[in-house]
Amino acid sequence: MNFLKNRTVLGIACIVLSLLICFAITPLFNAGISQKTTIVRVTGDIRTGDQITKAMVKTVEVGSYNLPDNVVKGPDDAIGKYATAALTAGDYIISTKLTDTPAAENAYLYNLTGEKQAISITIRNFSHGLSGKLISGDIVSVIAPDFKKQGTTVIPPELKYVEVIAVTASSGYDTDTGQPEDNEKQLPSTVTLLVSPEQSKILAELEADGKLHLSLVFRGSKENSAKFIMVQDQTLETLHPAVTEKSAEEKTEASGNAGLPLNEGGE
User: Fold this and answer.
1) pLDDT, tens digit, for every residue of 101-112?
2) I need a surface site. Which of 84, 116, 121, 162 has the fewest CB within 10 A?
3) pTM for the full model?
4) Quick one: 185 and 209 in the same domain?
């Protein structure tokens, strides 16, 4: 206690402490604040689900003090990935806002193998698309009123069992993925179906005529849905054998040429 009451000692201690702060701690603090690092910054608005392209981002040098540990610092760590949250111009990107896989509303388009195609048809009337109740994975039949101007309503045998892969509102958002920005359910505007080339031609004709209805056949497990599609594929093989054989030959040829040099059939 006597030592603490000694004003001379206290004064010297305060002077030493202030010198330590001025010439040691403060310079280190300032150096930390002034240290620079390169990060990736957004150049324009990016919506949830958008794929990041080179034109959407740029690298800038900023102070590294107080930056999140997971901030993206290299363009290669962002370009080609998909945004899981909306970003605006000037934002820096953190890794948790990126994903390697496309958003749920676009994932089905990246699963196409070349054997089948995705085609959208317009729902011109609320009742034509099962009153907005369709979801991806449903098996539907396509009903064609006045089919080929013959005055009869039929289900074309090529379109008895067709898989729904998306139901989309006029905003462009799929109605069954939870992507709309508001909480109000949006009414479907189009339905996207997974079909063969022959099926897509018939659907295009029906779309041009503006007359078609969708009826729900099955909703359930993928295994049981596949059984319906298998029956439909067998029907297509019976109705269009030449097309089916040609597709099989092209697939075999492509597989056989995949490993050949260009001058041996891979050109």
Assistant:
1) 776 556 677 777
2) 84
3) 0.57
4) yes
